[in-house]
Design a protein that fits this description.
With 305 residues, this protein is of the alpha+beta class. The protein is built from ten helices and 13 strands. The relative contact order is 0.09.
């Protein structure tokens, strides 16, 4: 089926389409929703994805679901009666990306010494919640390492903060093992908290997450850098919070990297969420680790978080 026919069929079924280049975005008609971009439909093949429900399939399957038909054959008959020819070729199967996993036994090597974070003002109750420790050997040597688990409790990565003075510019402050773009951290710990609060705060690093958690603000997601990845975006769409607060580092005294990235992230999220759902609220200092609990509380009240 050609792209013009796909558009005509969607319009005929009642979909109000938004043009996103190679795809349309719209509100699903087969379920209750007021999100105008949560359903993605490819222009060339009609294949679709409902980000909120994590379902998708062929164009005929979308027709079947939308019109509440009994079978795919009924979808094809409906298309034929409307003068459209269903595609004879199956869409090419996308390559399946295999997420890297790690042996949980490697975590037994973590030394449960939390002094680095305790000296930075993080309470022991907070730091123990994240199951980290110091690695004294291997690729994470001399780093306080946090394990990253997915929703199935599989170890899919580790992120480690170097705990000594950074005198060598070749040593990175944070080091990651695994594909950080796949991580939705720490949703394995705070998913229910986020769902209940209807708000989620996007921060750059685990250090920011710990500082906020230590001040009673537990509805965070770490993006491990300056850009929201596709898996992280999909997680946001599934959660569908009332408010997404972008709180990347406030780099106004340096290169404005966090400030600029926050504005870019806001524009990116505007494609998927209403403007009233997205808010930029940078820390009043460079990052939340530089702020004490009183300053974080003032930031919280000022931004109505």
């Amino acid at each position: 089926m050609d792209p013009d026919s796909i558009r005509d069929v969607l319009t005929e079924m009642g979909y109000s389409l938004r043009d996103y280049g190679k795809e349309y975005r719209t509100t699903p008609l087969y379920r209750d929703s007021d999100n105008p971009t949560v359903l993605s439909i490819k222009k060339d093949s009609g294949r679709w994805v409902d980000f909120k429900e994590s379902i998708g399939g062929s164009f005929e399957e979308l027709i079947k679901l939308t019109l509440n038909l009994s079978s795919i054959e009924d979808s094809k008959k409906w298309l034929k009666n409307k003068g459209h020819v269903s595609s004879a070729k199956a869409a090419p199967r996308p390559q399946v990306k295999t997420q890297r996993v790690f042996d949980k036994n490697s975590l037994t090597k973590l030394e449960k010494d939390h002094s680095y974070w305790l000296t930075r003002g993080i309470d022991i109750e907070t730091i123990e919640k994240f199951s980290g420790g110091i690695m004294r050997e291997g690729r994470m040597k001399n780093r306080y390492v946090f394990p990253i688990f997915n929703s199935k409790d599989t170890l899919v990565g580790m992120t480690g903060r170097f705990i000594y003075e950074l005198n060598n510019p070749k040593i990175a402050k944070w080091k990651h093992l695994g594909d950080k773009t796949d991580w939705k951290y720490p949703l394995q710990i705070n998913y229910d908290i986020i769902k209940e609060s209807k708000k989620i705060i996007l921060v750059e690093s685990v250090g920011d997450c710990l500082s906020l958690w230590n001040s009673g603000i537990k509805n965070t997601m770490v993006i491990f850098g300056l850009n929201v990845s596709v898996p992280q975006l999909n997680a946001l769409l599934r959660i569908d919070p009332d408010k997404i607060i972008i709180s990347l580092n406030n780099d106004f005294q340096n290169n404005n990297a966090g400030n600029n990235a926050a504005e870019k992230t806001k524009k990116k999220l505007f494609k998927y969420f209403d403007a009233k759902q997205v808010q930029v609220a940078l820390p009043t200092k460079n990052d939340f680790g530089d702020m004490n609990q009183e300053e974080i509380e003032e930031w919280k009240l000022k931004n109505e978080i």
